[in-house]
Amino acid sequence: MAISELQLPASVHTHALADANALAKALAEEVAERLRQAIASKGQACVVLSGGRSPVPFLEQLARQVLDWSKVTVSLADERWVPVEHEASNAGLIARHLLHGAAAKARFIGLYQPSPTLEAAAELADQLLGELPPIDVLVLGMGDDGHTASLFPASPNLRQGLAKVSERRCLAMLAPAVPHQRLSMTRALLASAGFIALSVQGAGKLATLRAALAAEDPTEMPIRAFLHDPLDIYWCP
Ligand SMILES: O=C(O)[C@H](O)[C@@H](O)[C@H](O)[C@H](O)COP(=O)(O)O
Fold it and tell me: Residue of the nearest CA to atom 15 in ligand 1?
C-alpha cells in the first residue's frame, strides 16, 4: 500500500520517499527553506518539532542545513514530564540531535518545568509559551492510535486540547505508554503554524491514516484535527 492510495482532502499534499533517510533529507530541506524565507521576510523564524523515535534522522539532517540559526526559535509540540537528562525527554532528544554545531545558536523554548503537579507544570509551560513567536513550521508525528503531539485519545483535557479556539497554549495530558504524564501544545496553538508537515513511516501508520480519514471525531483519533486543513504528509515505506 502507498500513500497515493489514500483518499485525502485537496488541502493535503503527500510526499512519498524511498526510505527513512530520503524522508529525513527531503523534510529537513523543506523545513530549512521555509525557515530561511521567514528570516528573510521577518528577521526571525520559529519551528515546533515533535519527539518520539522516528524524528532522529530528520533532526540530524536539519542540523546540517545552512541558515542563520541565531534567528530561529525552536520549541516542542509536546514533552514527556521528565527532566531533560531523562532518556525519554524530548528536550534531550532535540539537544542531542539538533542543537549542536551551528544549530546550537538557536533559542530553545522547552515545555518541561519542575513542579509539584503535572497540571501546575502545564500552567508554567503555558505562560512560558507566551514568549513563543508565531510558528512558521510545525512538524508532527503520529502514533498508531492516531495521537499527535501528546493529544492522546481518552486523555483527560483532550476536548480542551482539541478546541479550535483556546486561550491555553499547553495542557497536561496522559499517555497510555510510559512516561504517562505529558505536556502538549494545544490544537489551537499547533494549528496556527504557517506550514504543517506530518512525518510518518511504514504501512502501519498508513493504515492509521486510512482509519483516521474514514471518520470525523478527533477525540477518537486526534490526528483528524489536522487532516482537513493545509498539511504536507511525508511518508516512506
Ligand atoms: O513525544 C512523542 O512521542 C511525540 O511527540 C509523539 O506524538 C510522536 O510524534 C508519535 O508518538 C510518533 O512517534 P514515532 O514517530 O517515533 O513513531
Answer: 54
Q: How many CB atoms lie within 10 A of CB 70?
A: 12
Instruction: Give the pLDDT confidence of 166-202 residue by residue, as tens digits.
Output: 999 999 999 999 999 999 999 999 999 999 999 999 9
Cell for 208? 492509521
This model of the complex carries an ipTM of 0.96
Beta-ladder partners of 109? 75
Domains, the chain, in order of start with CATH, read 11-235 (3.40.50.1360)
Nearest alpha carbon, ligand 1 atom 13:
52
Q: pTM for this structure? A: 0.98
CB 178 less than 6 A from any atom of ligand 1: no
Angle at 188 between CA 35 and CA 57, to 5 degrees: 40
- Distance between terminal CA atoms of the chain? 9
- On the question of pLDDT at 1 being above 90, the answer is no
Radius of gyration of the chain (CA): 16
